[in-house]
Amino acid sequence: MSWENVCLAFDTLFINWDPSIFPHRTVLQGAWDVSDSAVRLDAGNAVQTDQYHVTIQAPGSTRVWFHLERHIYECNDKSYIAVHAFPAQEQQRRANVDHGGLMGVYVNVAHTLLCLDDPCSSQYTLAISRHGSAKRSPYTLRVYSDKPVDVQTLPRTLPHRSIVKGSWRGRSIGGPPSSPHFRHNPQFRVTVHEGALLPRIISMITTISTLSVQATLAKGGERVLSLDDASIIASSGAYSRGIALCDALALQPGVYTLVVSSQEMVATDFSLVLEGNVRTEIVPLPEEGAGQYRRSDVRSLPCTWVLTLPRAMKVLVCASQAPTPLSTAPLSISLLDGDRCLTEQSVPGSVACAILRTEELSAGTYTVRIGGPMHWPVYLDVYGMQPVHLSTV
């Protein structure tokens, strides 16, 4: 039978080999667990990874084989396994295992191999990866080498860990900070408790690999309208596809706000993992105007609105505008009863959102006046415990 016919007739070829030809051998046992950090969410299937720190005593003059075997395998199993190796400088887990190293191929079989041939580094982070299954599955990792190799399990970075599932849907698809809808993004209150160590928390958001995301930790513990340098405690940096890692060092115990946003306006789910060296709590913050009636409008300035209240109530008035590249004019909002100004607020053009919270107003008609860059769209939202009427003058 020719080799060409073998390739046509069979999908997989298994070859026996003798591991004893390698003088140094290591065997480790592990298991993929659905509680593992999700590195990426594609069609609801998470990638689970166990990670190991590999130290090679004589890099550049040896060959190291990694043999991964999963113990439970069924013919109709839809999960795939792979081994990836990333050059490292210290014993630290890697957040993103999608690129940046020697990438193994995901295969739907019981065994897979990865070879470091004359490795350029003496230290590697080894990712034992499974994609597409939600079942717990044990595995065996065998390491064969010509020279001594030390393999150590890399535990979770920090001992306290919480996982929150969320989504961008409808109004909560707020977009990046330059969007006038940024304040609608999902936000979380993070409570950091005192401990023996100076608090440190790591926030990791994961979603579909085609979506660019960002995580930002800010002061306050309440919903934020916009972000600036003074309010930001830590950020994951530039938007990155599928995953973002925000590492906040040397925090003070207290309450903070975590904002997760996407660069593209796409409806999808996400997973948020929060790790800390002290006890932490994370809870979703209610949406803006939660439990209240809303009236909205969008117009280009200049424009004035008439607000009619059917009965006495408090109202929340929000105006937002995308920052304009050619104007530094502030965004201002005022509420008037006839000629008398009841309340007003003005914010720099870079903030892009102004908000008014009133005391109880009597039933009647009021004027909402917004100032800002002319001929530029402004978004107006009014919330109340009863339906209100909003019209333009």
TrEMBL record:
InterPro entries: Calpain_III_sf, PalB/RIM13. GO terms for molecular function: cysteine-type endopeptidase activity. GO terms for biological process: proteolysis. Keywords: Hydrolase, Protease, Thiol protease. Signal peptide: none annotated. It comes from the Eukaryota. This is Cysteine proteinase. It comes from Malassezia pachydermatis.
